[in-house]
Amino acid sequence: MTLRDFELQIPLGRITGLRNDGDGTRVIALHGWLDNAASFVPLASHLSGIQLAAPDLPGHGGSAHLAPGAEYTSGVAVNAVLDIADALGWQTFSLLGHSMGAGIASLVAASVPERVQRLVVIEALGGLAETVERTADRWREAIAAARALPGKKLRVFADLVAPVRARMQANQLSEPAARLLVERGVRAVEGGYVWSSDPRLTLPTPQRLSEPQLARLVAGIACPTTVVYADPPQAYFPEPLRSQRAHLLPDGRLHVIVGTHHLHMEDPVAVVDVIGDFLRG
């Protein structure tokens, strides 16, 4: 499958992304936090029989940033995905998500079950929870970070060596995978490059759902769902929590593959082996 650039307009602004020209099941692929549509390039080369559209989510890649004063919330993300589907002319579709994108895809599937036919989530299901006891602390941390952000300047990189190395170290990525994400995730400025993502994406959100609320959302996902986790698990989504979430799905199947968080980039053949036929229905 060969991917090409595309661009469309939704209410919040320009959305860029990658898509193929094939036929078959309509699939919207949602990337992880601070990643971009290039996250699905390795996987796409092994997929067939689907129409794949992988947008750069708002604030990522070449897509528009939110307006000044706006915040990146789960509700904004869910509505952006639905606006993208509308702009594509897709009333019904399947979803493929990685990490943050898997969390967003979960919320979309729970929110509009009549539109989502199948769901594949990689390395997340639902979202990150917060305890009631941490409510005040979370608000204090989030507001302090938001007030401090306007004074920060973007770091300028003379070339792509440093940002590629940074992504390799931060995400256990190989050089080719890191370069895919970096090349789509920077923009040229005088003196070199800066990250193209909206700096507000790095801010902690003041509000998170509790684990019981997330459990209800996951249990409300009606469509057939395939969950793919890497082994070992991430510290923020440990066992047995992540398996417990998967077992809440009314029509779910769970696969665990030895690998790192970006296993869909590093071992796409193994991932396609468990999701390819499922996505094609």
Q: What is the second-level CATH architecture? A: 3-Layer(aba) Sandwich
Q: What is the CATH topology descriptor?
A: Rossmann fold
Distance between the termini: 18 Å
Number of helices: 10
The biggest beta sheet, please?
A: 8 strands, mixed
Please state the CA-atom Rg, rounded to the nearest Å. 18 Å
Helix content: 25-40%
Number of domains: 1
The oligomeric state of the chains shown is single chain
Total beta strand runs: 10
Strand order, main sheet: write it out. Answer: 1-2-4-3-5-6-9-10
CATH superfamily (homologous) name: Alpha/Beta hydrolase fold, catalytic domain
Please report the first level of CATH classification, the CATH class: Alpha Beta
Features:
281 residues; alpha/beta; Rossmann fold; eight-stranded mixed β-sheet; two-stranded antiparallel sheet; 10 helices; 10 strands
Characterize the structure shown.
This protein is of the alpha/beta class. It has a single domain, classed as Rossmann fold. Helices cover 35% and strands 22% of the residues. The chain is built from ten helices and ten strands. The strands form two sheets. Strands 1-2-4-3-5-6-9-10 form an eight-stranded mixed sheet, with helices on both faces. Strands 7-8 form a two-stranded antiparallel sheet. Helix 2 packs across helix 3 (100-111) and helix 5 crosses helix 6 (175-185). The two termini are 18 Å apart. 37% of the residues are buried.
